[in-house]
Amino acid sequence: MDTREIIVRLVLIVVIFLISLVIAMYSTYAERKIAAFFQDRVGPNRAGPFGILQPLADGAKMFLKEEIIPTNSSKFLFIVGPSLAIMTACIGSAVIPWGQQIQIGTRMYDLQVTDINVGLLYIFGVVSLGVYGVMIGGWASNNKYSLLGAIRAASQNISYEIAMGLSIIALLMVTNTLSLKEIAAQQHGWHWNVLYQPIGFLLFIVCAFAETNRTPFDLPECETELVGGYHTEYSSMKLGFYLFAEYINMFVSSAVMATLYWGGYNYPGMDWVAAHVGPVVGPLIGMVVLFAKIFLFIFFFMWVRWTIPRFRYDQLMDLGWKGLIPLAIANIIGTGLWITFVK
Amino acid sequence: MSIFYFIAFLSILFAVLVISAKNPVHSILYLVLTFFTFTVQYILLNAQFLAIVNFIVYMGAILVLFLYTLMLINLNKDSEPMKTNMVKIAAVLGGGCLLVVVVAALKVVGVSDPVLVRDPNLGLVKNLGKVLFDEFLLPFEISSLLLLSAMVGAVLLATKDPKIA
Amino acid sequence: MESLSNKRKVIESKPLSLWERTYLPAVVKGLAITLKHFLFRKDVTVRYPEQKREFSENFRGMHSLKRDDEGRERCTACGLCALSCPAEAITMIAAERKPGEENLYREEKYAAVYEINMLRCIFCGLCEEACPKEAIYLDGDIVPADYLRKDFIYGKDKLVEAPLNQ
What is the pLDDT of residues A53-94, one digit of tens each? Predict the structure, then answer.
């Protein structure tokens, strides 16, 4: 890896980081707007035309609000909690291939921060690490509701990680590789994995909802039972970090789903387009397509949030352990039989 | 090599902090950091699969469960049982014996030859899988049976007896 | 017991079938309903400060002290409104009309000071009913918000109707 490549990588890291933040910012706006449309309302429309500056106003409010650290909390961990939450949310996007190789001058560059050959497991690891931010924050608050929220988050995440891991195993049996770059490249020309793994995708998306703590699985921050859940005691930008982390998680898991199951940057007729627009614009169009898919998934996350009521805690555990895990195991066996006898 | 020594130093530092931390939750968090330094060491050894599995299983699952239990039982100074002098003396004696054994063992073994890795890419997923499912298939399957029996045991413990309930 | 109206519905709660227990059909149905609202239904919001919904005919808003056909204040400071007010929101000080003020006040006695505490007022409309001179009506807008309690005590400057010829 020479200097130029390192510079390209650094630029890519910064750009992806900024994109994640901007998308997370505007997800808050989109969430409120979309919720409004689902409920036949208008939504935020005061800050700027159509309320487009609302996220900035929210951000300014978050920064300027009084910051309260509870007296009996463990102060260091109280600050570590939200920082960890947002850090684990941000590093997940490092292995996602945003497009095909792009040609600048005479050289080819990957539109991916790094292609480690255990990329899929890396994402899985980052997801499993995400629960620490919630747990530490909930415990450090020294509040019973926060602790209950943290405990719910921990048991929920561990339970759904198992089903998620099992659905990924079935996917691996089809792709034969852990590298996200290769998985994306394999899906070229309508070989999208969702066509081979429909049940696996269903399992994955349900688990993604649970891992990002989105409705119907938002029990860690369930207002009706736990005041504010794990972030009851948080205020100001530390609360903002927790809320922000949720939206970044949503963005990253949408990107992962689009890459793993819905063809990543591939779209029908891309060879024809690439031949006509050249080696620079072609991959960029692929990137736009990937982002379109990501936005669709984010929309789906929000659509579900404003449709389905929250599960009860025992129902959540029931669904995870008695529903999804056996189904995931059956899916693995089915995939194995299919590979052995049909393929 | 300097990275190795730095990370090794961090591992030992965090490991010491695990035992010296007053608050059990803090010591679990130091343990998380210790395991993280192990992950870095595995990556330095080019054992990517082991690194990521260590990351997922130990940091992401087992220690979360540790933390979970510790949060629930809420250990602090007031609830900690008083240690009698008997226990303290027994602990010192036990620890001393362990130290003697370890020192003696190290003295007997001496310096072994450095392990030669024939294939530097052994730690990659593909190679590791080939070795596991070919050369070491029997031990691999036996350990999986062990896990299965543990799982069955856990389910048995968790299910209510229909006659009693 | 036998239903007389024949409107009673018997609800059968059968155990869910396996397909229903996956929650999928119910989820899809719900998503379809919300999507219908997202795409086709118009929003029902009245964008308030720019756009106002018409009040109903018997709406009671801010009070106004009326003038007669010649632009003279109708109020004669009899105090019946204050007396009838269950919230004790109205106070007034009466004064005698001087010669030359006939074009300002209709009766020989008028209210020099007339104050309504809008924080006390419950908009019951009893003052309106008590008034023998048809001088007070609750036909105004919603009372606007303010920062200080003293600013909610409305005097004649805010209550009396604008003069006719201006």
Answer: 888 888 888 888 888 888 877 888 888 888 888 888 888 888
Give a yes or no: residue B5 inside a domain: yes
Identity of the residue in C27, C41, C45 whose CB atom sits nearest the CB atom of A42:
C45
Alpha-carbon torsion, ordered B123, B127, B128, B133, to 10 deg: -170
Nearest residue on chain C to A323, alpha-carbon basis: C22
Structural domain contains residue B7: yes
> Do chains B and C touch, with touching meaning 3 or more CB–CB pairs less than 8 Å apart?
no
- Which sign, positive or negative, has the C-alpha torsion C101, C103, C104, C109? positive
- Distance separating the N- and C-terminal Cα atoms of chain A: 39
Decide if A132 touches B, using CB distance below 8 A.
yes
Give the closest of C23, C34, C42 to A38, CB-based: C34
**The pLDDT of residue B145:** 93
Asked if residue C147 is part of any domain, the answer here is yes
Tens-digit pLDDT profile for residues C28-43:
888 888 888 888 888 7
SS3 content of chain C, % helix, strand, coil (to 5): 25, 15, 60
pLDDT at C166 over 60: no
- Do B65 and A128 contact (CB within 8 A), yes or no? no
Query: Is B90 inside any structural domain?
Result: no
List chains adjacent to chain C, taking adjacency as at least 3 C-beta pairs closer than 8 Å: A
Cβ distance A36 to C43 less than 8 Å, yes or no, reads yes
Cα–Cα distance between A81 and A135 in angstroms, integer?
8
The candidate with the shortest Cα–Cα distance to A112, out of A165, A210, A41, A179, is: A179
Flag whether residue A98 sits within 8 Å of chain B, measured between CB atoms.
no
Residue C134 falls within a domain, yes or no? Answer: yes
Interchain contact, A125 vs B25, CB within 8 Å = no
A interface mutation test: which of C34, C45, C47 has the most A CBs within 10 A? C34
Report the domain count for chain B: 1
Residue C38 lies inside a defined structural domain of this protein:
no
Domains of chain A, residue spans: 3-341
Contact of A265 with A289, CB cutoff 8 Å: yes
Q: Any CB–CB contact under 8 A between A310 and chain C?
A: no
Distance CA C39, CA A215 (A): 22
What is the Cα–Cα distance from A180 to C42, expressed in whole angstroms? 43
Domain span at residue C143 reads 64-159
Residue with tokens 């939750």: B25
The identity of residue A259, as a single letter, is T
Classify residue B86 by burial, with Cβ atoms within 10 Å: 0-12, 13-18, 19+.
Answer: exposed
This model of the complex carries an ipTM of 0.78
Domain count, chain C: 1
Q: What DSSP state is assigned to residue C151?
A: G
DSSP C92: E
Any domain includes B50: yes
B15: CATH: 1.20.120.1200
Strands C109-117 and C153-154, sheet pairing? antiparallel
